[in-house]
Every structure is written in C-alpha cells, then in structure tokens.
Design goal:
alpha+beta; Helix Hairpins; Single alpha-helices involved in coiled-coils or other helix-helix interfaces; Heat Shock Protein 90; 3 domains; 5-stranded mixed beta sheet; flat
Length: about 350
Amino acid sequence: MARTAQEDLSFQTFVEDTFTEYDHTQKQLREIDVLIKQSAAEVERLAQRHAQVTNYVRQLQTNFDTIPREDIREGYEAQQNAQQRLFTMRGQLEKLQSDQRNLERLAEFQRKLLELSEGSGVMPQMQKGRATRDQSNVVRVVQVEESARQSLVRRMHDGPASSLSNFILQAEICQRLFDKNPDRARGELNALKATASATFETVKDFIFELRPMMLDDLGVVPTLRRYVETLQEKDGPQISITVTGMERRLEGHVEITVFRAVQELLNNARRHARATQVQVLLDLTQERLLAVVEDNGGGFNVEEALGGSDANRTIGLTTIRERIEMLGGELNIQSSTGHGSRAEFVIPLEPEVATNLR
C-alpha cells in the first residue's frame, strides 16, 4: 500500500531527527571516552597512593611499641582516606563505563534505524551527502583531539600528578621529623621546595603549549620568539629564529594557525627527527606570511607522513596542511630519510586588517 505525501514527510522528519540524535549520541560517546581515560588515570594514581600508605602502615605495625600514638593514628587515618578516595573514584569509573555501554547500545540502535531508512528510499539525499562528506573529517578531528588529550593525560600523570603524590609523602615525613630531627626536616623541606619549583615549571610549559596568553596579548611573532627561548633553556637542539619584513599583528585565526604549525614542526624536529640544529624563519610582507622550519635531523618519508595509509600518516602534519589550505595557503615539505627536513608554508594576508606594531 503506497504511502501518502504526508506520511512520506513525517517519515523524512523522523529520519532527520534520528540523524540529529545519532550525531548527539556520538558526541556524548567521545566526551565520555575522555572522562573514562581521565578517571582511569586518576584511579591508577590513587591506587599507587593507597599502596604507599598501606606500606607505611605496615612499617608502623612492625614498630608498634616504639612509634608515637599520634603517628600511628595519622597513618591509619591516611590509609582510610586513601582507601575511601580510591573506592569513590572506582565507583565513578564503573558508572562512566556503564553509561558508555548504554550509549553504545543506543548508537547501534540509531544506526540500524538509519540503515533501514536508506533501504526505504525516503532518506533525504542531503543527509546522504552530508554523511559521506563529513565522515572522514569527523574521524580526523576526533583522532587529533583524542591524541592531544591522551598525550596531555600521560604527561600530567607522569609529571605533576606523580610529583604531587610525592609532595604529600614528603610533607608527612617533614611533619614527623620536626620535633625528632630538625636538621633532617630542613633537608626534606629543601628537597620538597626544589621538587615544587620543578613541577611548577612543568605546569607552566603545559599551559604555554595548550594556549600561550602572549598569543592574544602580543601576537604570534613575540610568542614564537618566547617559545624558542623556552625550548633553548631545555636539553635539545640549538634553535634560532629570524624575523624579517613587516612585523605586525594579524587576524586571530591566522596567528593561531601560524603558531600551531611552527610548534608542531619544531616538536617533530626535537622529538622525532633528533635534530641538533633547527632554524626558523618568518617573513611578513603586506600580502603574505612565509614561514620556514629547517632541521638537520633524521628526516622522514613525506609521502607517507602526509598521504600514506592511516598507519603511517602523521596526524599533526596532515592537520597543519589542511588548516593552512583553509586559509588559502600552501605547505611544502622537503625531506628524505637521513637528510634532514625543510618545511615551508605561505599564508596570504589581508592588508587592511593587519595592524603595524612599529
């Protein structure tokens, strides 16, 4: 029995609503996946803390007759607190994992409904085209976002989070030593201060890499100069930066793109290419910005990095190229294994928008 026009319209509306809900479910799944990774890292940290406190309590038990009652009480309270926090976080992680499974079942049901609508012939062509066009872009954006977040979580867990755990233990040691051994307590405090200073510098580096405030206040050129100076203070290659032409502020989205592109190229040279020397050049004219990053590192296969299979493709370089091309620019990379790399990109500028700083 043929459907009426009203029934076709209602079914088409249902399909469109299902598409919208499916997109929303996918977004929720991406968000909850990030929360699960963060919670799992926190559970691991708390588990390590609980193990440390438990070992300390065991040491107290072996010297039960000689240790002050106050130390024993504090030890057991610390163990109880660590156990409670670990129990709570594990419960939160289990709840997130349960929500993830429910969302996955909902997404599967929505997907099957959409597949059935495709077979009916009523599904709007616009939606088909959108699904086809956006699929690769969505996958790429998710990969880039998740890769960046996973990297940050790992670095936070291995760096500041681990240091903070040690802070607590060192502080407890100092607290117990104040009356018994003041000299050793001062030594522990000095070590704690040094660790805190190093952790503070690490956190500042994280903040700068995520979103340097200088970029909004002063622009891309001063920010890149400062970024290079910061890298020079660390172990790694010798990096120099040269700026020529009309140094000035650019449109915000252009400055962000330039900074992220140079940042990614420098990270590749430092962490992957094992370069000993890197040169950065920025040249600004009224009509365009030229950036060059050249190193003497191990080099790589450009074709595989930018256009090879998913296993070989470098997400960071691919994203840089796409962002530059979205601004009407072009990225060219010359490299081969064992012979260093030269990356060059050009972005056209809008003269009437730029503001000269000189």
